[in-house]
Amino acid sequence: MARKRMTEMPHHENEIAQVLIPEEVLQARVAELGAQISADYVGRDVFIVAILKGAFIFLADLIRHLTVPHEIHFMAISSYGGRATQSSGVVRILMDLEASPEGRDVLIVEDIIDSGRTLDYITRNLRTRNPASLRICTLLDKPERREVEIPLDYVGFEIPNEFVVGYGLDFDEHYRNLPYIGVLKPEVTGEET
Fold first, then answer.
1. Among this protein's residues, is 141 annotated catalytic?
2. Among residues 45, 114, 120, 153, which one is catalytic?
3. Strand pairing partners for 77?
4. Domain ranges for the chain
């Protein structure tokens, strides 16, 4: 089956049941997080590890608010597949760091934490590489879904147990470009009750 071109895609706005976090609220909170991180890392060079693909938009906006020296590094992790709306529980590193975090002040930047399994895997993996410190910044926290407790240092928003898209988060690789966090209509995800 041929993929639809973007011009043929249905208008995403019609597939959103609810805007959970509007663009203006998102941007204001990202600015606050940037200020908080900058204050906490004064005099230090931050080794940022962004988790792809979901965190890339959040990261781009966040670093514009950082006033401390920092490097950007990426890891790609998979725990979802295709049209899944829940983690499979199997975590795989698809792309690893190209530089060593040994002796560095590491800040993990994530888009969303729900079960905690993926982040637990990432933090255990990075701790074996002997960073000087390791902190976690997530845009969204979904504590209702937590299976593995993870201490979070910076949290943008705590959200209910809804499958969300937008601002980097996707469903089947779509919706990342939405400037807000939205909840998809159940008929889009196939989870109608």
1. no
2. 114
3. 93
4. 23-79+89-185
Regions of the chain where pLDDT drops below 70: 1-11, 79-89, 191-193
How far apart CA 57 and CA 147 sit, in angstroms, is 26
User: What is this structure's pTM?
Assistant: 0.86
Options 3.10.105.10, 3.40.50.2020, 3.30.70.240, 3.30.950.10; CATH of 23-79+89-185:
3.40.50.2020
Q: How many CA atoms lie within 13 A of 54 on its CB side?
A: 23
Report d(CA 53, CA 184) in Å as an integer.
Answer: 19
Each residue's pLDDT tens digit, 117-161: 889 999 999 999 999 999 999 999 999 989 999 999 999 999 999
171, 10 Cβ separation under 8 angstroms: no
